[in-house]
Every structure is written in C-alpha cells, then in structure tokens.
Amino acid sequence: MKIGIASDHRGFETKQILTKYLILKGYNVIDYGTDSKKRVDYTKYGFILGEAVSKKEVDFGIAICGSAIGISVACNKVKGVRCGKINTVEEAIHGKVNDFINIIALSGNLPIELNKQIIDAYIDSKENTTDPVYRARVLQIEEYENGRD
Q1: Which of 3, 4, 7, 93 is most buried, taking the most CB atoms under 10 A from its CB?
Q2: What pLDDT is stored for residue 132 in this prediction?
Q3: Do 97 and 135 form a contact (C-beta atoms < 8 A)?
Q4: Largest interatomic CA distance in the chain
C-alpha cells in the first residue's frame, strides 16, 4: 500500500513521527512536504497531496496541520478528493466505510498515539460497497463535482 502524507509547519513533527511509524509497519510512504517547522501555507501541501490522491499516485492520503481544518478544506478543493477531518477512531472507520474518504486530515495537536490509532483504524476498515444508500450518496457528490444536477 502506498500512502501519501503532507503537512504544514504546525503538523511537521507529527508527520515525521507518523511517517516513521508507517514505514516500520511496512507501508510505502510518499512525503509531499513540508520539510521543516518553518512557517508555510497549508494550502500548498493540501493541494499537492490532493492531486496525488486524485491522480491515484497513492492509495490514500494523510494531511496534517494544527487543527486539521484548513488543510482538509484545501484537500477538498481538488477534484476527486473526499477528505475528512478525523478526531476519533470511530470517525476514521465511519469516514472510510460509509463516506469513502480518501484523505484523512489529522490535527498535529492530538496525542500521537491517538493519531496512530486513527490511521490504523482507517487502514483496517473496508468501504461499504454492499449498502446502496452510502454508495448512492458518494455518487451524488461525484455527480455534483462533475457539474451534473
């Protein structure tokens, strides 16, 4: 599995720790930046990660900033991206199973162990392809995104 990861300066330390964690678990991790704690715009890295996910260069993405709000908004501006700001294991499971999110946005302010649990829960969950209600909702989002009524 290939995982893309990106952060702004406020998420940099968390990104570094989570990247090492995922590599130790055997995942191929592509780091899309930033590369220091020097102040940067989260938008740049949200767009870069979103493009990588949209183009299927990675299987899914992890976006990190201080609150996870800004970078999730930036990611969601990229066509084909469904990014969810995730604070709990339950949200990670629901986001993948029912909403088919392909980027999880994490707060650099959350405890690192909780962020690891969130990532593990997301990876271990499977999209609910058997319930037509959830699939229909995702299709409605895709159709709207593509300019259909």
Answers
A1: 7
A2: 87
A3: no
A4: 46
* pLDDT at site 149: 57
CA 122, CA 64: separation in Å to the nearest integer? 15
- Evaluate if pTM is beyond 0.85: yes
37 within 8 A of 66, measured Cβ to Cβ = no
CB atoms within 10 A of CB 39: 9
Backbone phi, psi, residue 94, to 5° = -60, -45
3-class secondary structure per residue, the chain: CEEEEEECHHHHHHHHHHHHHHHHCCCEEEECCCCCCCCCCHHHHHHHHHHHHHCCCCCEEEEEECCCHHHHHHHHCCCCCCEEECCCHHHHHHHHHCCCCCEEEEECCCCHHHHHHHHHHHHHCCCCCCCHHHHHHHHHHHHHHCCCC
| Cα separation, 16 vs 2, whole angstroms | 16
